[in-house]
Amino acid sequence: MSKDNKIAGTYEVSPAAGYAGDVAPATAWKILTEHKDAVLIDVRTRPEWNFVGLPDLEPLARKPALVEWQVFPSMQPNPDFVTALSGAFADKDTPLLFLCRSGARSAAAAKAMTAAGYSTCLNVADGFEGPLNAEARRGAAGGWKAAGLPWRQT
Known about the structure:
Layout: H1 3-10, E1 21-23, H2 25-34, E2 39-42, H3 46-51, E3 54-55, E4 65-66, E5 70-71, E6 76-77, H4 81-88, E7 96-99, H5 104-115, E8 121-124, E9 151-152
């Protein structure tokens, strides 16, 4: 049984076009806890990592991989994204969980790595900060932080 089947058969994964699917932040944490080879890849920009915060994987004795999907400040797609991750993760069955601010960039990253031959690319739905709330602010309506998962700010 491939790791893709283990993930999809064991956890709640919402179907998605072009990659293995979407998972809630709490499900992503559970996958990271139960699969030592799973990797959380934060695809936000350097300013977001520095000023908004980062997922804290220290309780799991790990760190998230930080690779910008779009390069700040131009916000042009990172031409080295797939190459950087392919060089870091040779095993194409490695579960890769992608995280951005709200789930859009990370979905695109999951699609790109699936197209590069990786079998278990998952998007963390609602991202790190979640969707906008009624006051047009992020952070309370969903996402990693609102789920109460570990995070830190530098």
